[in-house]
Recover the amino acids of this structure.
């Protein structure tokens, strides 16, 4: 077992005393500072760490890790607190390692389409920094998350269908291991067969194997042109058919997002739009001027064949921005449907052939459980969608029905050959579903965790508990 | 240390006796059968296993692994024997696990662009099987390797620049672990954040962590059209400049290969072509009819700006096939330059900005060491290239100079921010260079190996030796 807080508390007290002497004002122990790092966009209760440390560089991280190791003190890396499954909670106490002071771009190699950054930089700050180079970093999970946090949770988002997920764009990591040793996991070579793929092992490890202190990332040339398109469908099935045809045709869409009628309604109200309240596909195309026009038209034909209506596309930046800002605000738009409720953002990913059935069944199930409105949106080019549940924190019965829905949804995704998490990660909230999904594979995962972090100081209690 | 053969030999003898009783004609012990599985396209001396086992299904693999585990007997998975760094050798004896009887396509999900196959199927057989679906599996390392072997070595090849490497196209694996347990590492979801990325850990693990018994792979729609192009350059630098401009422009080339003048000469002689003996780029474009013409023309402009000459392109299948067959035969063409010599295919990958310098320096160094002709070819869109050394097995001095060259080449690649292996893997031949490249990262790799295979029965002596 992970050991409870009390058995660790003597060690933690000593660690804090040593860390306080060494790091002085870089250590915060006030309640607000600690609660801020435990607060994330999740329905799980915050569990603050005993102190917050603000390292300035890799050597300081290594020093902190060694001190924590000596006194059996948990370390919980913190980026911006936008994760959704309790990743930044400190159920066993310990130290929240706030990486916000390590937020520099260390190197941009424009010819090689790569850059090296510190983990605390956010994706928007990175893209601001890159603007003059004509390059951009494409992974966009919605929130302005830190790059380190995005790597740790294997984030993706709206344009993964074209540019991949964090696993695809991280080339090399610098990591401080649980014993305080500093390693690099790769090189700047675009491909490699040099030993175990530690890069991909640390991407998605949720801080449980080490602290990411530098990342080398693939960049992409800013497309010469972008176009955005919207198309309505009479049913979610018809919209999904259009998505399948688009992917099969090989149309290189940069984004293809589904909003169900409930979500369109929420977005209309929140962002002052007047989209017809039908299932909607929202697309973006990247390429040359001629290319994005051709792509939009090709999608138009596909949409026509699958019953799409009122297909519109535009290359006007202001129209594109307005649409995509509305999409990015969808979470808040949904929350606004039932003020005072907690939002639970679910996250399943299924083979695309099962998508229409899965989305429709989820909408039906939410209605059956009296959980409507439960708007749905999805990165449907990848088969990934989110049902947003809006739950009254004072209504025990609604909470129980929400739990019934979650169990049903994740079972359904796993039965369809999919996963209980396309992009949010496991954290504290999904350990039960991970066991259902991968069962026997949990044993080698635990063996790896124990091999790299024998004292279980790196973000303990996340992904799985130890036996 | 790995333990030498003699300390294991009693166990191996007992294991063979148990395996022989259980598997009868599925076990081969004749010298030819054993030598065949130790023979690969490598300069390393063959080290045959004590027996060859031919499992028919996953349960038989698990049975074999359990018996071998009981008697501390090494297991060396074998695909087609086309690996290059001694991966199929049995330095500590044991059992060669020939996967050729497990070569079926288990499932094709055309709507989802994926399939599930057994590891023994070769890439050509898979593509033959897929022909009627309009889909194809793009990874092409040249040799008609088995899919399981390609995953185990993280293979890639000529069209990785567009379609990625094995790490990008494997979605899920079934693996028999060293303790005989059977796990699945993923699902058919296109993306996932569900726990540690065991899929990517097993891809490239060279059989040292478990035996791959099933693979779920991403497939791609057959392009509507393909075009091939050739362009000569006065220097390797000029050719590399054209490559950099092509990648930066975002031209979605399917293949972009460099042959230096020596390699063009070898190919001319071997394949009866009459290409001018200058550095040559050989390209392939995939897309719509209009798209491949547009891409070829766009490359033509880039080539013109960077001093390309005699740019030619064609969509005629017979011309394309002839050119690419010649490229695929380049290894044998090079070998034919000095009959009776051993071929050593080196394999470095550097950031693309360092490519021209690295290729030119390698050619100079080979000349300086009196190793010419040492033809060079490269998957240059990824910065990956191979210098082919042709070494007389009876000339000790030439062998020593070849060793000097290898040390120099891998040091140079690592110093340039690159890797000692873009696609061949570490095996027995590159352990020294892996230590130079990733140094401190070897410790967590060893810890993972020990955690998953405490008795070191899975392909021992590959990637690294144990402390």
């Amino acid at each position: 077992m992970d050991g409870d807080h009390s058995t660790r508390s003597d060690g933690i007290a000593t660690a804090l005393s040593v860390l306080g002497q060494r790091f002085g004002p870089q250590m915060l122990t006030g309640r607000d500072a600690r609660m801020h790092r435990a607060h994330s966009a999740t329905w799980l209760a915050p569990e603050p760490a005993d102190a917050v440390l603000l390292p300035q560089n890799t050597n300081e991280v290594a020093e902190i890790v060694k001190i924590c190791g000596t006194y059996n003190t948990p370390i919980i890396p913190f980026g911006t607190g936008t994760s959704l499954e309790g990743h930044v909670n400190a159920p066993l106490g310990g130290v929240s390692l706030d990486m916000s002071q390590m937020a520099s771009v260390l190197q941009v190699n424009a010819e090689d389409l790569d850059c090296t950054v510190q983990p605390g930089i956010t994706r928007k700050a990175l893209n601001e920094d890159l603007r003059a180079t004509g390059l951009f970093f494409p992974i966009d999970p919605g929130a302005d998350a830190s790059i380190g946090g995005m790597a740790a949770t294997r984030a993706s988002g709206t344009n993964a269908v074209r540019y991949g997920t964090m696993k695809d764009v991280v080339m090399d990591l610098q990591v401080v291991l649980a014993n305080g040793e500093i390693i690099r996991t790769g090189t700047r070579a675009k491909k490699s067969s040099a030993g175990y793929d530690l890069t991909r092992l640390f991407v998605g490890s949720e801080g449980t194997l080490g602290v990411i202190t530098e990342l080398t990332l693939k960049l992409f040339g800013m497309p010469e042109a972008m176009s955005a398109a919207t198309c309505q469908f009479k049913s979610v099935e018809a919209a999904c058919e259009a998505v399948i045809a688009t992917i099969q045709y090989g149309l290189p869409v940069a984004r293809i997002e589904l909003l169900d009628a409930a979500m369109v309604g929420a977005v209309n109200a929140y962002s002052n739009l007047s989209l017809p309240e039908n299932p909607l596909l929202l697309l973006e195309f990247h390429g040359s001027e001629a290319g994005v026009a051709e792509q939009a038209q090709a999608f138009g034909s596909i949409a026509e064949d699958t019953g799409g209506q009122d297909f519109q596309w535009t290359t006007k930046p202001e129209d594109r921005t307005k649409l995509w800002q509305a999409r990015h605000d969808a979470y808040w738009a949904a929350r606004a449907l039932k003020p005072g409720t907690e939002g639970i953002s679910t996250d399943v990913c299924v083979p695309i052939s099962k998508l229409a059935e899965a989305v429709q069944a989820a909408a039906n199930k939410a209605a059956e459980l009296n959980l409507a409105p439960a708007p749905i949106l999805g990165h449907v080019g990848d088969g990934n969608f989110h049902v947003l549940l809006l739950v009254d924190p004072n209504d025990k019965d609604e909470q129980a029905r929400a739990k019934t829905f979650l169990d049903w949804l994740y079972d359904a995704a796993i039965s369809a050959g999919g996963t209980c998490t396309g992009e949010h990660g496991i954290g504290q909230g999904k350990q039960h579903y991970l066991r259902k999904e991968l069962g026997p594979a949990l044993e080698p995962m635990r063996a790896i965790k124990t091999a790299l972090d024998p004292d279980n100081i790196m973000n303990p209690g996340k992904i799985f508990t130890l036996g």
